[in-house]
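BUG: 3D viewer hangs when loading the predicted structure for this chain

Environment: internal workstation, default settings.
Expected: structure renders.
Actual: progress bar stalls at 90%.

Input used:
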Amino acid sequence: MYDKRQTISRYNLTESSALGFLYNNAFGRGILKAITLPFISKVAGLYMSSPMSKLMIKNFIRKNDIDMSDYVDDGYKCFNDFFTRKIKDGKRQFPHNKNILFSPCDGKLSAYRINDGTVLPIKGSGYTIEQLLNNKDLADKYNGGICVVLRLAVDDYHRYCYIDNAEKGDNIFIKGRLHTVQPIALEKLPVFVQNSREYTVMDTENFGEVIQIEVGALMVGKIKNHHGKCRVKRSDEKGMFLFGGSTIVLLFQNNKVKLESEFFANTNAHKETVVKMGENIGEKFYE
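Structure tokens produced before the viewer hung:
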């Protein structure tokens, strides 16, 4: 349990920023239609996987104030090698109690209750679980449940893990565009239901049926999940995002988990809560 977690405001981007221009200006929105095409991100991803991209690494570390002593240096051959760098053993701790729900990744957390199948993330820009999954029957099972959104910024650790021992289903890919997941975009568009994404249903030992969704974002080359349908183990690595900010969404059914109340309070106050992979965020629900 953490006495006081760091929070950040969702609305800390200025209208004069490059993203403000793209999302608030008519000419900018014209450019946006082109650069959010998956083809553009694919081309960018190819560059990020080329030896030429190594030149970007030092400046990126300096600009984002990344403590590289936390990470394994395998001699990065390209920017994506650096971006998907592995963290050193012991730098992310997991709770021993299997009834504790922990974060599957580093990120900025928001929490919502799913009312009548709808989640309202920011300033009324709503989306439904059915839109998110493209599957009404599956979405209906999560009415009354909880939606956890974990937004990864470019300086976060971009690997993610399994939250529990589980029987994992197939990976379901939904093709879309690739908007940024920065708050300014979330204010303007239902980004999570427009962006390319991949989800799987997991029958977990302690938290019931859980859906984990990986959402791609602007300039993300690839969502790379390691496993198809199989038995998975708690805290094992599930996959990684290649370059760009990204998002993980967790869906829990009604009365399966109890999330810490501060997450709902912070979200209602238009703040995101900073968490790390393995950090306690809730627990198994008890009748």
